[in-house]
Amino acid sequence: MTDVLRPHAEDLYAEELAVLAKSDDRPRPPGWRLSPWAVTTYILGDGDQITPKYIGPRRVVEVAVATLATDRALLLLGVPGTAKTWLSEHLAAAVSGDSTLLVQGTAGTAEEAVRYGWNYARLLAEGPSREALTPSPVMRAMTDGGIARVEELTRMPSDVQDALITVLSEKTLPIHELNDEVQARRGFNVIATANDRDRGVNELSSALRRRFNTVVLPVPATVEEEIDIVSRRVEQLGRSLALPEIPAGLEEIRRVVTVFRELRSGVTEDGRTKVKSPSGTLSTAEAISVLTSGVALAAHFGDGVLRPADVAGGIRGAVVQDPVSDQVVWREYLETVVRERDGWNDFYRACRDAG
């Protein structure tokens, strides 16, 4: 897999999944590769052989895993950057061994992506038949007893969303053209993700929402927790992108995370100074992106040490989404908070020069 830019979770962590499967002697729901306890251990890590894939409240993961063991589908809800997609991929990999049965929700997603389509060459040549069907990822998951993933559910048109109702309630997918149906095998379920900043774009119908158990993924509770998440992901991304190894740069990671948290919450970490928030989300995922870009700059164009100048441009790009209002917010934050903070003079100068 060395030539694959981003291996699927079940491939990248195949050894860890095999270790858990070998030692897992707890009851497994029908169709599951691992027991719910082992799936949770795979997600959160065990401090030894199993690395943590998600850093957050254990109870959140336990509720998500327990939901998949019932007849309820799982909806992971949260602001951008709370690892909804990341968690859904690893849950699918641990439960069914296949995280690839994915429907990407967009404004242009058609109903065929949820139900099925047709191979029109065979349809015209042979007429309607099972062989002429093009199964959707949801249909394949039903047939194989696997987990189907639906990303950004609220971005899909309402009529496409509601195509899931019969699948989730009756566990069948009617094929009206053939007077036939597909019945889900044991192990089938659906994990959907939604961004709660998108409410009102395509709000879920009450009928569909009742078919899901909603688990809200929180933003990291403390700065130390967010630094831990960012550090781990930057290191993982650096390895996968084959970036030259450079020192961890923990000081710059702490600065980036602190800036994002303060602008996101509208108040400094000590609670003494209120600051204006920009129009963007400034999520943990964006902090990871800023720092990964900084590592690349330091490795290829710097002296191999992550410095303020390597991250300043990325921070400004993440903060200033609106060139007028966000620019005012950013300059005010630099002058009233960053400039006055002890030990941040080099960071202040780098950010000022970048802007």
What gross morphology would you assign?
A: globular
Q: Work out the helix count.
A: 16
Number of strands: 9
**Poorly predicted sequence stretches spanning 5 or more consecutive residues:** none
Order of strands in the sheet with the most strands?
A: 2-5-8-1-9
How do the helices and strands follow one another from N- to C-terminus? HHHHEHEEHEHEHHEEEHEHHHHHH
The major β-sheet equals:
5 strands, parallel
What is the arithmetic mean of pLDDT?
92
DSSP strand (E) fraction?
A: 5-15%
Report the end-to-end length measured between terminal Cα atoms.
Answer: 40 Å
Q: Share of helix among residues? A: 40-55%
Rg, alpha carbons:
23 Å
Give the structural class.
Answer: alpha/beta
Notes on the structure:
The chain is globular, with a radius of gyration of 23 Å. Helix 3 (36-44) crosses helix 5 (84-96) and helix 15 runs antiparallel to helix 16 (345-354). With 355 residues, it is α/β, with parallel strands linked by helices. A five-stranded parallel sheet has the order 2-5-8-1-9. It has a two-stranded antiparallel ribbon with strand order 3-4. A two-stranded antiparallel sheet has the order 6-7. It has helices at 9-12, 14-23, 36-44, 58-68, 84-96, 120-126, 137-144, 158-161, 164-170, 206-209, 223-240, 250-265, 284-301, 308-319, 325-338, 345-354; strands spanning 73-78, 102-104, 116-118, 133-135, 147-151, 172-175, 180-183, 189-195, 212-216. The chain is built from 16 helices and nine strands. The two termini are 40 Å apart.
